[in-house]
Write a structure and sequence with these properties.
By secondary structure, the chain is α/β, with parallel strands linked by helices. The chain has one domain: Rossmann fold (3-Layer(aba) Sandwich), CATH 3.40.50.1820. It is built from 8 helices and 7 strands; from the N terminus they run E-E-H-E-H-E-H-E-H-H-H-E-H-E-H.
């Protein structure tokens, strides 16, 4: 299945008998492998796949995609063969914005979602004038260290840094220039998750996701910062399991 999508969509623990599928969207500079533990934990109960963006790991020689909107167009097309069972999206940080845009495109094409998990990201309507992508290397690296989303070993390895910085900076640019078209709403419930000490999203900004869905919005806060989920894996996985079980039962009726 989806042989033309293998470059974009990664399936680490295929679960062909699972009734639903979780699609995971990485953060800025992140890769599909970030969700390998999620796939391992939820399979075979839920079939988990992760999106691999151009410009990193085995796709590092490919040109970066400049905007969230263009990336959403490409990902939505690649996900079509994977919509043979109900889909739930999980996106962290930039990945939440991308998941929202992909959800809009799939729904417009007749593919409804069970739900959208927006993690570590303020609502699309809550814009901040951020220009981190234009910072010098040292300032940019300080931002990465502050958010604690990059392996410290990588931050101390010059050769690795030179390899990943273009992708991370490109992702930051796409996230920071993102200006969503106002008034659009997904037709599925949204579950918002964020760290209480996250400098990138306040509780008010998190709750504003309610403006972007015609269904219910649930907001969950956790101790920690931008990458709170690294310290709360069992709780995050339980939220996903519970949601998928409940919404899957509703959808099957």
């Amino acid at each position: 299945m989806a042989t033309n999508s293998e470059k974009w969509i990664r399936s680490y623990h295929p679960a062909p008998a699972a009734p639903t599928r979780l699609v995971c969207f990485p953060h800025a500079g992140g890769s599909a492998t970030f969700y390998h533990p999620v796939s391992r934990a939820l399979s075979p109960e839920i079939d988990v796949v992760a999106v691999q963006y151009p410009g990193r790991q085995d796709r590092r020689t490919e040109p970066l995609v400049d905007t969230i909107e263009e990336l959403a167009d490409l990902v939505a097309e690649e996900l079509k063969p994977w919509a043979d069972r109900p889909l739930t999206f999980f996106g962290h940080s930039m990945g939440a914005s991308l998941a929202y845009e992909v959800a809009l495109r799939l729904e417009a094409g007749g593919t409804p979602l069970l739900g959208l998990f927006a993690s570590g990201r303020r609502a699309p309507s809550r814009w901040r004038d951020e220009q981190v992508h234009q910072a010098g290397d040292e300032e940019f690296l300080a931002e990465l260290r502050n958010l604690s989303g990059t392996d410290p070993a990588v931050l101390g390895d010059e050769e690795l840094l030179r390899m990943i910085l273009p992708a991370v900076r490109g992702d930051y640019r796409a996230a920071e220039i993102y200006r969503p078209e106002p008034g659009r709403r997904v037709s599925c419930p949204v579950v918002v998750m964020f760290g209480k000490d996250d400098p990138k999203v306040t509780e008010d900004e998190a709750r504003s996701w309610a403006e972007h869905t015609t269904e219910d919005t649930t907001v969950r806060s956790f101790d920690g910062g931008h990458f709170y989920l690294n310290s709360h894996v069992p709780q995050v996985l339980q939220e996903i399991r519970r949601f998928v079980a409940e919404r899957g039962a509703v959808a099957s009726k």
